[in-house]
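Onboarding guide, step 5: your first structure request.
Type a short instruction followed by the sequence, for example:

Predict the 3D structure of this protein.
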Amino acid sequence: MKKPLSAIILSLILSMAVFTSFATASTVSATPKASGSLAKAPSGELRTDQLMFGYTDTTGKQILGLIGNPNKNNPNPKTLTSVLYAPGKQYSVSYVKHQASSDKSNGRQRAINFNNDGGELFKLSNAADKLNSDESVLLTTKDAFQGHTFLALKTVQQGKFSQKTIKSIEKAKNRKIVSQGLIATTTSGTEIGLVRFAKGNGKQLASLVLVDKNGMVFQDFIGYDDSQSAWRVDDDGQISAHDFNLWFVSYSKAGYALGLEWYGEEGTNLSVIQQKGSKFRVVQEGGRYLLT
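The system replies with structure tokens like these:
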């Protein structure tokens, strides 16, 4: 059953409000210091025109790149040569052509609608390679991550922040935490998690928090005062670490960078954010509409 146009527009408006919250990031403590070869590496500043989101087809061998915000400097698809779809998993791709949307498209960015959806068509360069079907991915140019070290993940969706860390977060934000959990922990000990704060007299607030030995970096998500759709459409006023997936965690002279997928009832929000001084900046953002 097709969703009314008005409902789709509302979903997009709420999603854009969520993306706006990426600009409210804040940090505690100084930017982590680079050491060894990292200090000599290029700046590592990520660029919008070197990244494009996409998703895989039913075979896991083709990718449809999603055209980003037309007001931003999006990449020339012919310059995209690699695909990231999970930490430590990167493959070569070849550009095929622009694929126009057909009259049979249902407007969903799903593998079942892959051949009817509009976007930039790629294939894996090595015929022996295969990705999971219907996966969100990040297409990149050859030099997009020059100067970056990709951090391996030790655990995913396991555990919680220590009470010591929780107290530090509460002190930094001057708000009590009502729920929390880890999204991932790197082998070097860096923790990335999600905390939700007590509402108090202010707006709903949750934060993605990156913690290492040098301090904490916050990515704030400001929610609506709506018990049905606070952060995402039809989220029942809830948000947790299990709503997030990490494509990658990297570190360069510019600081940390994260590739995030945020699952919602109607689709996923996709973003690449990078530390810049005392806050994160949004490098690229997009989404997939998946409602069945």
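Each response can be followed by summary notes, for example: The longest helix spans residues 5-20.
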